[in-house]
Structures are given as C-alpha cells and as structure tokens.
Design a protein that fits this description.
With about 70 residues, the chain is α/β, with parallel strands linked by helices. It is about 25% helix and about 15% strand. Strands 2-1-3 form a three-stranded parallel beta sheet, with no helix packed on it. The protein is globular. The model has no long low-confidence stretch (mean pLDDT about 90).
Amino acid sequence: MPTPIDRDDVQRLFREEHAQLVEVLPADEFEGEHLPGAINIPLKTLDAESTVSLDPQRPVIVYCHDYQ
C-alpha cells in the first residue's frame, strides 16, 4: 500500500533499509534529472513485469522529479 513520506523518511529508508528508488518520469527526462542510485521505470510502463528486477524484501520509494 502506498504511503506518503517526506525527505527525512526518504533519507532514512535509503540509508538504513537500503530502499530502492524508482523515478517514474519518461526515460528522456530521467537522464537529465534523477536522484543518485535511482532506476527509471516510466509511469506508463509501471506494472508487475517492469518491476520484476526490484527486491521484494527492500522498501521501494517511487517518485517523480517534476518542476511543475
């Protein structure tokens, strides 16, 4: 179940629980702006098949870096 988190939670989850960062912008936008260590799974392709490489034992942080 999705849970909103703040920046402090992101940092803690990444540091302590080795959370996985998933940026959902289109690939061309991902190349210009993303957090270090993030992988790109564009929102339009986000499904069970596209997330098979994620470790189900670690938290997943899904975000969208958008200036709008």
